[in-house]
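$ run holo --ligand "farnesyl diphosphate" --emit tokens
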Amino acid sequence: MAEQRNIPRHIAIIMDGNGRWAKQRNKERYEGHIAGVDSVRAVVRAAVRNGISYLTLYAFSTENWGRPQAEVDAIMELFCKTVMNEAEELCRQGVKVQIMGERTRFSERVLEMIDHIERTTAAADRLTLILAFNYSSRREITLAVRDIAANVARGEMAAESIDEEVISQHLMTASTPDPDLIIRTSGECRLSNFLLWQASYAEFYFPETLWPDFGEEAFDRAIEAYTQRDRRYGLVTDNVIE
Ligand code: FPP
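-- output --
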């Protein structure tokens, strides 16, 4: 089905607009994040239904630690609660969950939940759901460069053998194909330190919809828009090999 409809293999989403959604309703910001979890549930369902193989969601950036402590705590709590409540249903749908980001600064409880969700869903094979949590792309690239430099210094690799593939293999996304489609909700049109290397040939889609209002239909519309795009990878239409 995926091949016939030319649908994206990997969709990545910057879930933006929770705060504005809450403000419009005179609610606290954390209530926007709570509503945002319903959208996460909806897009996961829609991704499975559409035969998408990889879905990456930007849930918490390295920079987000700088938000008011109450909001950070609320997002961490929401993450733990969601993991506890959804693990079984995710397994039932065939969703394997992986957390992408540095395992630093988290509480013991969050670390336990990360371990719990990854272990519980490890055997699922319909959709890989990657939650970027304490992730930033520049940090990811920095760590990769450090790692490669250390390999060279130890004499395990020649500097001349560093190519794009070597770099890709040292990123946190090493086992994941590059995103075909990147969606950012709420009308903002920027990447905010998300998958900078991996986004080289991605298509972008920027709906005005705030994240808590982004549901299954909106996700289907994004896929439909993608199917209309002409991806050329720097070539001309006639010689593109996908
Ligand atoms: C961006 O909206 C959203 C976030 C920084 C957090 C996203 C978190 C969730 C959807 C819930 C937790 C996720 C999981 C997977 C359990 P914003 O706060 O920047 O919105 P604004 O730009 O309108 O202020």
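-- notes --
DSSP finds eight helices and six strands in the chain.
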